[in-house]
Design brief:
About 30% of the residues lie in helices and about 10% in strands. It is an alpha/beta fold. It has two domains: about 170 residues; about 100 residues, no CATH class.
Amino acid sequence: MQQRLFQAYVMVDWSAAAKPTTGPDSIWIGVLKRNVRFQMAFESHNPPTRAAAEQQLNAILDDLKRKRERALVGFDFPLSFPRGTAAALKLPGEPWKALLDFVAKETKDKPDNTNNRFQVGAKMNRLMTGEAFPFWGAPARDEQTMLSAKRVREHGPDDLPEFRLTEDAIKGPSSIWKLYYQGSVGGQALTGLPIIKRLRDPRQVKLWPFETGWKPLTPADLEDTDAVFTEIYPSLFATKPNAGEIKDQAQVRGACERFAALDEKGQLGALFGPAKDDPRREAVEREEGWILGVNA
């Protein structure tokens, strides 16, 4: 029988909410792991703040590491930005890493969920273009010279792309440049990336595809790895809520179950990238990332 890549699956539905919140449209963490009888069992957590979610994820990852169970950890926000962003910000080094470090340094997020994501978006706009573009979207009180409540214009051929290559391959994605309103992926990325960095740095974690390559993975690729962090898009998996379950909770369960089932059959490794060379490889591996489960 083919060896599994992972022994546990942790899926995170994120939220950029500015105050503590639970229930629909809040943070949900789904965990599928072995119980005391060594059977796969699902549990979910609904922490009210990002600080509480970080604490919970640290506890989950520490517990799995102690048991020597490697985890696939999925986050439902982009782990990086469209190609050209690091250059526009004049950041040196590997683009994905430079962007992760930049966002982690700039974003301030308090224990009660108040955060400065609109100020960070405005600063990035100023540094990248000197105008209220490409980031947009803010409540009236947070509107400023470099950040408009509404989108100021379309993306032209000389602008940074509106979407990453992986988003071009899915239906109806939101852009990372959108900081507010329904599906504010940008707000989720700016509040989520600092936590990714803090969870990753003290552990043997590989960020896919930046540190693994955009290619099919085998158990040998993951030796001495505690966890692989990936980007997910939960609505790729149609999951019907069970009785008493809300939609977000069902989505993290569905993602856990889907990846576990593929791993059981030896088919999960193929999802981590194209088997043959691809002209998009450099942009995907060095800067943009990819969504796990989206066909290359």
